[in-house]
Amino acid sequence: MKHKATLCVCAAAALLTASAYIAFENNAIVLTEYEYHSDKVSQELDGFKAVHLSDVHGKRFGKENSRLVKLVEEQSPDIIVISGDLIDSRRPDPDAAYELIAKLVPIAPVYYVTGNHEERLSRELYISAMENISALGAHILDGNSEALVYNGVSVNIAGFKDSEYFTVSEARKLTSDGSFNILINHRPQYAAAYAEAGFDLTFSGHAHGGQARLPFVGGIIAPDQFFFPKYYEGLHRFAQGATVISRGLGNSFLPARINNRPEVVSVTLRKG
Ligand SMILES: [Fe+2]
Asked: What domains, with CATH codes, occur in the chain?
């Protein structure tokens, strides 16, 4: 009897510890900061900072996402990029997206592309969500690009929705000669092709950091890349250009992150 009671206490303690760990891993945001040095960065662009959010999946960090918004605000970004899956298709909560966008827009221009989850929403919800997000002041990039002037020089910011896979030649049409070219898209595995197309820096997510990260191994699994994905986090350089992959902030089908805390990414451009 005494042995059975001890087993019960041990099982309860293990369950509590596991629950606390999962809650920590799902809620304790981490900031990852990169400096991207490139000869494509002009003197005027040196110091330009982008904050990158991805795969929020309707999650709130504090009341009305106050913890997330505060962390973004503290970075004093020049732009905020959101690379899809802001709204989760399995449990859509568009109000969470609207709350977040409304609080981000006053901080810096917000550029947003949809992910596979937004595209799975009902047509009515998709249309109303895009209308509301646009009305709140976010720039929705859907196969187009916009020019931003920073310190007198042009930054070309392009994006497309998840279902649009652009070939190198098609993607090239969204670049702008003489500008620093940024691309936002959801899936990370095409980044090398987009770099080849002329994009200096791409931002993506989708991989959720490989869901669980093992020491010396890295991410375990990611959609479309399956086990041991190559593109699940980090800054990857190519022969020309680079890509930044966010591990994302929320969860969808798999509810727990392991050694993979929700991530806000900041990238500062540096000349040379
Ligand atoms: Fe996602």
From this structure: 2-271 (3.60.21.10)
